[in-house]
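[[Sequence with tokens]]
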Amino acid sequence: MKYSVDKQEKYTLIQLNEEKLDTTLAPKLKSELVTFNAEGTRNLILDLSKVKYCDSSGLSALLVANRLCQESDGVLVLSGVRDHVLKLIKISQLESVFNLLPTVEECVDAIFMNEIENDLKGDGD
């Protein structure tokens, strides 16, 4: 699986450099996501701008990432989702589950907003 990782203080950006997110890649992606979570990553940006095709196992890997982030009070944001992948997300009625934004920059902003909200919730306790 070809991908690049950019770890920042508040988030990790993973850019998938594959055209297909399917049964051959999904298990590897899942294991990488579990590893990042175990290492303390709670906010994750997945740049899917190069992914032209996704099947149900790819969608499952994205759902695993979403669950892991939520369980650690973080957020998963999907960037650059192409038409075919977006169609699958909509058919599966998951557009309300995933945070979908067009650019990585907007994803970074969303993560910082989530961090601020979490900080404010923490102060109120």
Q: What stands out?
A: Residues 47 and 76 are 11 Å apart (CA to CA).
